[in-house]
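Format notes (please read before filing issues)

Several people have asked whether sequences and structure tokens are stored in separate files. They are not. Every record keeps both together, in the order shown below: the sequence lines, then the token lines. Line labels are part of the format and must not be stripped during preprocessing.
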Amino acid sequence: MASNPMYQFNVYRIGPEIKIGEVDLSFTNASLFMVISSLAVLIIFNLGSKKNSLIPNKIQLLAELSYTFVSKMISDTAGSKAKPYFSFIFSLFMFVLFCNMFGMIPYAFTVTSHIIVTFVLAAFIFFGVTIIGFIKHGFGYLKLFVPSGVPVVLLPLIVVIEVISYLSRPVSLSVRLFANMMAGHTMMKVFGGFVISLGIVGGWLPLGFSVALTGLEILVAFLQAYVFAILTCIYLNDALNLHH
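Then the structure lines:
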């Protein structure tokens, strides 16, 4: 069973079963790695901010580079009005990044390879941005669905397309992250199985592919966290500045 490339995505309970009615709140391997990722982020940035040395150590350098990177990303995509939301976007980026990176460790669990996790994150962003848009602009936020300069004849069709596009945001945001992480880890498992089955003599080629694929997946893990965060900034920019 463990040789099945899809077995790595199985969610199983750790500890006693906890149920409230029909809702299962048991602690699982997915919960464990979400906690580990969150604690890792807290520990690294707590240590990195304790000593503000002129010559930073590696942890301080990581914290400062991450802060600068996310701050620039927000400024470039959403402008100065989005600065109050820096903490949320920074936390989101680091959480997704660490979940992705921990998934690269052998026998670890990749939290972001499950659609329910990525969809909950995307849905939270979607509803949050929508609420911010209505708070900032009231019902004027609906102008987002009416692009300027569109001929009156085409307006009903364009409005329908804009509404569908807006409502599909949480789906596209969540599926993009989930599909990339799941596909990559499945391929790594498949090539790993080829190495074992072909043995020392015939396993060199799939081993080379496995090494190359591992490097690619590390890059994908970072890029998917970046894409997830930058799309959040773009959606936030629409809500704050109401470009239409």
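For reference, the curators noted about this record: The radius of gyration is 22 Å. Residues 204-241 form the longest helix (38 residues).
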